[in-house]
Amino acid sequence: KFYLVHTVPNKPQIFNCNMSAFLDSANQLFENCETGKGWEGCKDFCTEDATFECTQIPIKDMNNYAEWMKGLLSGPISESSYEVLSCTYNETQVTYVAIFKGTHSGEGGPIPASDPPKKMECPYSYTFTFNEDGKVINLYKVFDKLTGFTQLGWPY
After folding, report:
1. CB neighbours (10 Å) of residue 29?
2. Contact, 141 vs 52, CB < 8 A?
3. Tens of pLDDT along 138-149?
4. To bridge 54 with a disulfide, which of 65, 140, 141, 148 should be the other Cys (CB 3.0-4.6 Å)?
5. Is the pTM higher than 0.70?
């Protein structure tokens, strides 16, 4: 069981909630995306035709997004981490708000790595939408590309 504490000034209330059946899958999928496991590490949690939406990244499906992240994290941003600030969910969606931290120290990217390497710290969110079988059908990402790319010295 999961207990959600809702604080009202001078009067805390506790609501008894059941954990979403999708939360464990969402946590593992989030971890696999953010650590560059590629489609191989993500496909068990998604439908084959799962879509990806982000106005800042011109990719339309989860397979290509997972592979793009794998390339990014094994190439130019090979030193990276993330910090989850919050996670919310309902019966069909799980949303994460996080901070991505990365250093352009590897090969690749729109410009060569500098010495010393440039670092980025950028907020983003993921919202996974699940089908009735517990598989992700869509990932919606909000990402501040301008901040991230500017910090790395990359063209926007």
Report:
1. 27
2. yes
3. 999 999 999 999
4. 141
5. yes
